[in-house]
Every structure is written in structure tokens, then in C-alpha cells.
Amino acid sequence: MAASAREDGARGEEQGQRGCEHYDRGCLLKAPCCDKLYTCRLCHDKHEDHQLDRFKVKEVQCINCEKIQHAQQTCEECSTLFGEYYCSICHLFDKDKKQYHCENCGICRIGPKEDFFHCSKCNLCLAMNLRGKHKCIENVSRQDCPICLEDIHTSRIVAHVLPCGHLLHRTCYEEMLKEGYRCPLCMHSALDMTRYWRQLDDEVAQTPMPSEYQNMTVDVSRINANVILCNDCNGRSTVQFHILGMKCNICESYNTAQAGGYRISLDQQ
After folding, report:
1. Is pTM beyond 0.90 here?
2. Looking at the structure, do residues 45 and 109 belong to the same domain, yes or no?
């Protein structure tokens, strides 16, 4: 047995807990890649220089009687329940969290199943309240989280769907909001900013620009002019320059980007 796995198991027994920090289970997995015993694939990957393929697991060891046997839900020797939930495909043992195996995702998801549907284009299980109300991006779940750069599809951390359709880990999304409001991939607003835009309207109205700037605009209707694009609607418009922000004339968002190096005076048009 791998020393690290035995030590992890001993610490769990001392604390009156089964399994590890990742899963509550009454058995150890026998890794087909190295024949070592670990509580779960995550514990294995942490201590080894290779990854455990959960789908190839054939045998487990009971934590009570230590009998090695074929993977199943209950010990054939002492009847220890290895997991309230058991998937014979993923070889996932855990306490009951209303899990279900999604054939399209190819892995188990935390349910209950009736609260989710599988979007075939996004290739991901999403909450029912997003059916017909989310922007689909093909195979979006097969991309890494743009914040932590770790896998989203097989992650134990819940994924958060942004209005633009991109995915972040929920924890990464919450951290991102402490620093900004835009999707790190496409710069679209990651939440409803309408209330803030209206507050910015008031601030702009109460902050007149110096006279030399009052007739300056940023023209995005000309190819050769200084360009501003709206990150929310991808629209182009000619707007009056203001140091606090330049408002899109199409969707009224201030989530705009300026490119180029000069402005055009209204008097010169």
C-alpha cells in the first residue's frame, strides 16, 4: 500500500471520518496504473507523477477488513457500505448528494437530476432555469477556466455560466468580481450592470468637461477615425468624449473600449 494513502486513511480514522477531504467513502481505490491504494483519484494525482484513470479502476480495498475485491458498493467480506452513492462507470463512491451519471457528459454530476438538463452544444449539464436562456458556445465545458487555468468539465467546483456563454469556476467568478465585472475572455459584462450605468449617467452629467474638451467626440463611424467598440453589444457609435466613460449609443453601456490616438472636433465635421 502507498504510504501516503495509509497515512491519509489513518488520519481519517483518528478524526472519526471515512475517506478523505474530497470524498466520504469506505474503501480505497487500487490504481490500475501503479497498483497503489488511494482514497480517491485526486489523492493519487497529488502524490504521483501521473493521473489515475477512474474508468479503468477494477479493484478496491475495504477500509475495515482490508479485503481487496472487485469494485462494488458493499464489501463482500464484512458488508461495509463503501458509498451511499456508487457509479459503476466512474467508480465514484461518496455520501448521497443526489448524484447522477450523465451519459453525454461522461461523468457523474451533483443533482438532483431533475433540476438539470444537458445542453448538447455547450456539452454540459446546466440548471433548468437556463434552458433557452443562455448563450451556447460549442463545447465550452471542454475549455479550462480562464482564471485558474484548470479543467472545468471534470472539476468538483461548480461552474458559473456568464451572460456571454463562457464558463468560470464559481469560486473564480466570486474572486473576479472583487477586482472587476468583465469576462476575462471577451470583456462582456459578467453581470447586470444597468443600475451602475445609470449611476454613471448622473456622475457624467454632474462632471462637465473643460471647455477645450466639450466639443470633442470619438468617431467610430469612420474607418480612419479613433475607434470605440462596445464590449456588450459589439456596436459602434459616435459619442462625446468624457473622462469618466463613454456611453454606447446602442445599448447604453459604458463597457466600451477606445482604440486609436486622436479625437475629432464637432466643429471640424
Report:
1. no
2. no
Phi, psi of 98 (to 5 degrees): 60, 35
Number of domains in the chain: 3
Residue 4 lies in a domain: no
Cell 463482500 belongs to 76
List the chain pLDDT tens, one digit each, 269 residues.
444 444 444 333 433 458 899 999 999 999 999 999 999 999 999 999 999 999 999 999 999 999 999 999 999 999 999 999 999 999 999 999 999 999 999 999 999 999 999 999 999 999 999 998 899 999 998 889 999 999 999 888 889 999 999 999 999 999 999 999 999 999 999 999 999 999 999 999 998 877 766 666 554 444 334 467 899 999 888 777 788 988 998 999 999 987 654 444 444 44
In a domain, 34, yes or no: yes
Note whether residue 204 is domain-resident.
no
In a domain, 1, yes or no: no
Range of the domain at 71: 27-94
